[in-house]
Amino acid sequence: MNLILGAVFLLSAVFYVWTAATSVPLSLHDGAQDRYNQLASALLHLHLYVGRAPTALTQLADPYRPELNRAFVAGINDDVLYHGRLYFIWGPAPALVLLVPLHLLGYEPSASVTVGVYSIVGLGFALATLRVLVKQIGDVPMWMCAIAGLALSLSSAIPFLLRTPSVSEDILAGGYCFMMAGVWLTVVALTSRRASVPRLALMSLCFGLAAGSRPTLGLGALVLIPVYLRLRPNRSRQSLLLSLGLPIAVCFVLLLGYNQARFHQPFEIGSHYQLTGYDSRTAPLGRLSYALPGAWLYVISPPQPMIVFPFIALSRPQAAYPRAIGPPEITGGLLPMAPIVAFVAALPWIWRRRPALLGTLAAPFMVLAGAGMAMMLVAAYELFASTERYEVDFATLFLLGGVAAWLALSMGPPSRRRRLLRVVGGVLAAWGCIAGLATSFFGYGDFLAVQHPGTWRTLEDLGSPVSTAIADLAGRPLLAATFMSLDIGESEYLLGLHEQGELTIVSPGTRTATLRAQVELLPGTRYGLGIKGPGGTTSDYAPASGRTFDLRVRLDDGLNHLTLYPLQTSAEPPTNGPVMRVSDLSLASGP
Fold first, then answer.
1. Do residues 250 and 392 both lie within one domain?
2. Helix (H) or strand (E) holding 541
3. What band does 321 get if pLDDT is binned at 50, 70 and 90?
4. CB-side neighbour CA atoms (13 Å) of 527
5. Domain residues for 546?
6. Which of 112, 181, 307, 447 supports an S-S bond with 206, CB 3.0-4.6 Å?
7. Residue 536: left (phi > 0), alpha (psi -120 to 50), or beta?
């Protein structure tokens, strides 16, 4: 078991580092632009603000109105403006624990380093928790142990987080790390029935630091209740209460003091003074009407199939909240993305009817799953839109509960029911690993494809046999935008003179096809449209604005990469900015 979990950890750590490094280069000295490094520097200079607002911004009649401040908030978007100074809305704990010490040593790491370190350490604690669970259950097959570890590694939304490392991801990864450390210390204390006062205090401190990253993570401290009940018969009640309650209480008091010192209100984190795309003072935030619809999206939003690598992507859920400011961001629901979490529903039954299956761990895993549900509801309540990165807060809590129930129910004397449970759970966990791995190649910014196009093209080519097989089954060429779904009808490219739009067409053989496109020339421009196809073949068209054109393309078997680009058709000086919009793309087979 130790060897299997160790191998899972090492392989996952390498993948985490690769994902972060191919998104934002790893560096210990180039993180000056990372917002959390600026907070660490401010703390070392003994103040809580990260800078002064631009004078032009503060002189506006109302600097919080986006229609007025749009020209002045570049680089400080999402910062908090309060009495002429800029603050961060995000919790300070990850900066205090990691970045302040690194700054004292002369390092200023990039966001990819910060997110990577917290993610890898957090995964280590999650796998250590799984190790305690497996020892408690006993006689778990190696393949089940391996797939459970991979589920914790790949289905947790952490790989997705690593694809777009920035200040928001710093906070989420830090909170994840502190939470997993607290969970590991909890399960060790419960299974051993003993823990020193320093270890109990450290457990409490970890949950306090998690709350200092993301206040809602403080709900994870509910698991301290089973610890207290378990250890109470053998420990002094006073020392137990002090060791479990004092550290987290101090963290909460310091967090309230941090808010009071910045905004003169202990429960104000800065959300009412934030510079964002809407007026934060009047925005419809914190609505009960958001909670259930948002939680529903976090549970059931399906991933989107693709016909090219990585074959699965996340998309924006179609549901929108009434009177919401904007639509949900890309989100993958827990059930379709990590269906092993469905086994969480068996935890109450195990706790009441078969307590021997999990021993002392049934209650804490049930409490953690309940805390995860509460965190999900709070995340949905606070905002008007779901977003994938927030699942980092609660996904692993559900995964631990689901994996625990699956392993427990699958153990015991051989029977058809247990064999079926093993296979079903294994398939569900494996699917979660595949879905989590696939969606990690995109993230929010497609950084891998944009910054490492050669690597992306290689990965696409490796997946081309699957893409070609899909086209063979369809019996016709299929149009696939690399970053979009099977239905490309809503896509569009806004092209400047030196910009390109790239398409991928999968063909079941060599043939000619017709690419239809709506072309709109922007006012005051006269340009043609060029197409570069397989083998460097090019075709030029002189479209009239607002018409649909049939563009003939010669396709090779398999993947065909096409490039659309504007052509200057007159001697007029080149125009800066966009010159045409190409939209409503569709594909029809030719002879």
1. yes
2. strand 538-541
3. low
4. 29
5. 463-589
6. 181
7. left
Phi, psi for residue 136 in degrees, rounded to 5: -65, -40
pLDDT (tens digit per residue) in 249-275: 999 999 999 999 999 999 988 888 888
Residues 313/403, Cβ–Cβ less than 8 Å: no
The enclosing domain of 503 has a CATH number of 2.60.120.260
CA distance 271 to 139: 50
Question: DSSP state, 490?
Answer: T
- Facing residues of 331 across strands? 315
CA 359/CA 229 separation, integer angstroms: 14
Question: Helix or strand or coil: residue 212?
Answer: helix
Residue with tokens 């017709």: 514
Q: Tell me the pLDDT tens digit for each residue of 7-60.
A: 999 999 999 999 999 999 999 998 877 888 999 999 999 999 998 988 888 888
Range list of β-strands (E), 406-526: 478-480, 492-496, 501-507, 511-521
Report residue 199's pLDDT band, with 50, 70 and 90 as the boundaries.
Answer: very high
Q: Is residue 471 domain-shared with residue 372, that is, in the same domain?
A: no
106: its two tokens: 């002369």
Give the CA count within 13 Å in the CB-facing half-sphere of 588: 9
Supply the pTM of this predicted model: 0.90
As a whole number of Å, the end-to-end CA separation of the chain is 59
In 3D space, the residue among 377, 376, 436 whose CA is nearest the CA of residue 152 turns out to be 436
- Would you list the DSSP string of 54-82? PHHHHTSS-TT-HHHHTTT-TTTTT-EEE
Closest CA to 365 of 410, 402, 339: 402
Tokens of 568: 């200057």
557 domain-assigned: yes
Mean pLDDT of 208-212: 96
- Cβ atoms of residues 553 and 589 within 8 Å: no
Residue 349 lies in a domain: yes
| DSSP letter for each residue of 294-340 | HHHHHHHPPPEE-SSTTSEE-B--S---TT-SS---SB--HHHH-GG
For the chain, the average pLDDT equals 88
